[in-house]
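Please complete every field before forwarding. Incomplete forms are returned to the sender.

SECTION A: IDENTIFIERS
Entry label: holo-635
Bound molecule: 2-acetamido-2-deoxy-beta-D-glucopyranose
Molecule representation: SMILES string

SECTION B: INPUTS
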Amino acid sequence: MSTYTSASKSFLGQFRAITSRMPTQLRTDLHVVDKESFPYIYEQNATIALKSSDGHVRCNVFRPKTSDQGQRVPVLVTYGPYGKDAPYKDFYKKSYDELNPEHKSEHAAWETPDPGFWTKQGYAVVRADERGIGQSRGFLDTMSRGTSEAFFEVVEWCAEQPWSSGKVGLLGISYYAGSQWRVAARRPKGLAAIVPWEGMSDYYRDRCRHGGILSNNFIDFWWNRQVVSNQYGRPRDEAIVTNANTGGEGPKRPQTSPETIEGNLSPEERAKNRQDQTVDNRENRFRDDEYYASKEYDMGDIEVPLLSVANWGGILLHLRGNIEGFNHAGSQQKWLRIITGRHDLPFYYKEEVEIQKSFLDAFLKGEDHAGWTQGKVPLVDMVLRKGDVGFNNADAEKAYPRRIEHEWPIARTQWTKWYLTPQKGLTPDVKVAEAASQKRCKVSYEALGTLQDPKFVQFVTEPFEKETEITGHVVFHATVSVTALPKGATPSDIDLFVTLRHISPEGKEVFYTGTAGDPVPLTKGWLRVSLRKVNTSHPKHRPYLPWRDYTSKDVQPVINGELYEVEVEVWPTNVVLEPGAKLVLEVASGDTQGCGIFQHNDKTDRAPSKFEGMNHICFGPSTLNYLLLPIIPPK
Ligand SMILES: *[C@@H]1O[C@H](CO)[C@@H](O)[C@H](O)[C@H]1NC(C)=O
Ligand SMILES: *[C@@H]1O[C@H](CO)[C@@H](O)[C@H](O)[C@H]1NC(C)=O
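SECTION C: PREDICTED COMPLEX
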């Protein structure tokens, strides 16, 4: 991308200008090696001076005692914003209480591999504070090019340590997964395998702007409670302020996390030392804005063996990225594993840890018992969501079967169109849909719905006659329009929020476990209609995945009363519908049930002056609306 270089240069310039305000007396006397107190060697505050930018990265090292007796060990490293010294039990006690006890060592930390467990398996664990966070001085700019350059240096540092075998693996959840794609694309020396466990890979499409619509609520929650609360130089006791609608639950910087060793900085200094994601994502709307452009990387540059672990319930943040990451990584050896459950717990389940260890042993230690390196492990291994087992119930979810596949999407997929009717039906029979759409008409709902006051229409299938599996990508094809309200302003855009729901044969909606244990529907998808332009010549464009560039040049007008044909990308999903079950397609003008904390309710992004009005799905003899579904026939 042509803007890439200039963008990163100006970011660097901005950074250089501000670094002089940081304290310069770097303390290097704090690195302590404790060989006695724990079953492993514990090194605190090792300092890595950065070459790629101003600042340093501090990390804690946990390594097997044998690594002091001449045995060189492979390294698992995480680099992120939640504080290397923040104990899991204090960061989010509610989650910690439910953790597999085998992973609750003294130094367990949120979403990272447990040092107690992994040192016993012969691995060193290195946990670094990201640049600008905790004890690492520098410019805080999460998920940026600059911070991944620093991570790159940390990976190489791990490979070069005297106790290191030179082989480094990346293993972690969420942030500690999303960061893996970007650094792996830079190919640091020593990097030998990655396991992005529920990790989004596309900053714009997966995280910040869903179909172009700002996903503000989660970012506000995450940034204020878990990230900026940990900024280098921030007093621990400073109040955490967030506008996010949180319900009060969730992780945050604990009182037990230490103060910055070099001392605190004023709020003004700290403000200059960071890029604020809540502000940046509101102000930057397009992928050619410098802000987003500077975060781009090419997934095809990833070469290391990778095990991408996706969660069917991660429908608002990570799921898409794990699947796209698997599809497009340049690695010769890559696997996709799909699970269910919450985002914090399954990573530590015994059976999941066995997979992690089997994979890492193969590529970091050369101990390949499962045959990863010999093509013996099937490419795709996934849970099938069959039946109603409830949500947030790990034991009940054990009833779900698993199945292996040899490619993604599944080659035997029967891509099937299910047509909407003006009577709010959903049918695979095109003749029925055509007959029902003889006269031009529309199905309407009000714009600017919110989770608290949702505005939507639902299209429902007849009960399925036989068991039917849906697995893969989904597209919603529709003709839409907007008209002004009586005496209202003239609208100039439409936000489409699409949800797929599953109704059991008993007539009750089946909910699945969402990211935070909340009930979620099958899947969701989004589109801002002014950003409807699809780039069909892009190499990543597929009939089942309309590819959008989302640049400022892609913006197209939306005129009061005119009809627009759009293709909405709906995130991949899986369900096995039993005979008698129904499927519901919901089209809304804002968030509806199941979005949890990931609300799209920023008043600037969804300004009433642009969006207010009635939204319509339009029908007519030549205007068929349909859902493209991946139906999987039995093997
Ligand atoms: C290392 O840094 C932590 C903060 O990260 C601090 O609490 C601790 O005292 C330091 N350790 C030593 C040995 O100075
Ligand atoms: C589509 O994507 C390709 C590849 O990135 C790009 O070269 C081309 O300019 C894009 N087409 C349009 C019409 O934007």
